[in-house]
Amino acid sequence: MKPSKFFSPIAGLFRFFRYFRSRHPRSHSPRQHRRRFTSALVLLLLIAAITSLCWYFTANERIRSHAVTALQNITGGEVELDQAQLSILQSIRIQGLRLYLPRRPHTPDNLVLAAQDVILEHQPLSIIRRRLSLQKITANNAHLQIWYNRDQDLLNLQLLNRIQEPDMSSSRPSLILRDSTVEYWEILRGEKTRTASQTISLGRMSPAAEDVPLYDFELQSSDRGAVRKLSLRGTFDPALGQPLETSGNFMLELIDFAHWPVHMEEWQRLYEISQPCGQVETQSRYDPQIGQILTFQVSQGNLRLALPDVTIPLQNVETRVVCTQDTITIENFSGQLSKECRLCLKGTIDGYTPDAGYHMILQTDGL
User: Fold this and answer.
1) What is the pLDDT of residue 59?
2) Which residues have CB under 8 Å from 83's CB, separation 6+?
């Protein structure tokens, strides 16, 4: 009996699948077992190879060695690390970072930067290439030391010999300091002066441009230190080890002379300047022949000048002072003595010591 037209397509489809199954090995075929065993073995070897490579490139000691090399190339100093570990693929966490001046004993006076907690952000593939390329460095609770040797006209940052990389953009990471401290002292006639301390709530430093070996920086101070509520920005040249130009502002009444170098406090005590207040704007620029030239401008200020047998209160003080390494030039100093009288002063002071010579012109208007 012939199948009906309705069941004929179903019977044909069944014969097709039966033919297809006959062309493949059965589930218990030895050939299929061998294929599965070979595939599992290859997969196991691949996982083992990947694990070995990850361990080789991410071992803490190897990461520590890469981090030390990268930081020394960037800073030009000698680096010590207590511990370094890969936290995620693009980040390395460092415990106990210390940066020292090169080719000098690792003593506290030769320490440039110390931080207990540092995070390095890097290009992920740079670890595999065994040449760590840093993109960003974040240091928390860091301690930065800067000293200036007046006898040798030398800043300690000038002793850092940074290695120039062929690819400048990839070898200059940005730097961020959070809740850090900057200490400054001078060396005069072989003796170390008192240390000035400044607390920084936030500091940033980033490359100025890809083809220019300069850094732009910005600092915001906290309520502690030599100058409180300070805002400072500028351009820094690593080759010179000092800023090329800066601009900033702070409130004069927030200066604490107890945190400044001794000669600055002596200068303030010599001229009996007390209770100063007002808005201060600062600018500086670097001259290869003269050095740093610093300009102070005070507006709407008040202070008291204590002279022998008399104290002079001045209001609405307007001042412009230019300071170099050797001289202080008072381009303008004027203050309201009374409603009808205004005192004006111009001149130069030959240094910062109490016995420095000076040349002054005093004028009064309305006295």
Assistant:
1) 52
2) 60, 64, 94, 95, 96
| CA–CA dist 170, 165 (Å, integer) | 8
Instruction: Tell if the pTM clears 0.90, that is, is over it.
Output: no
Confidence category of residue 170, pLDDT binned at 50, 70, 90: low
Token pair 């060396």 in the structure block, residue: 187
User: β-pairing, 196-209 with 212-225?
Assistant: antiparallel
C-alpha gyration radius of the chain: 35
Q: What is the dihedral of CA 174, 112, 91, 87, to 10 degrees?
A: -160
CB atoms within 10 A of CB 23: 6
Place of tokens 């201060």: 280
End-to-end CA distance of the chain: 139
For residues 247 and 282, the answer to whether their CB atoms sit within 8 Å is yes
CB-count burial class (<10 Å; 0-12, 13-18, 19+) for 36:
exposed
CA–CA separation, 77 and 63 (whole Å): 19
Burial of 191 per CB tally in 10 Å (0-12, 13-18, 19+): exposed
In this predicted model, what pLDDT tens digit does every residue of 257-277 receive, in sequence order? Answer: 565 655 555 555 555 455 567
Structural tokens at position 1? 């009996």
Residue from 251, 231, 254, 234 nearest 243 by CA: 234
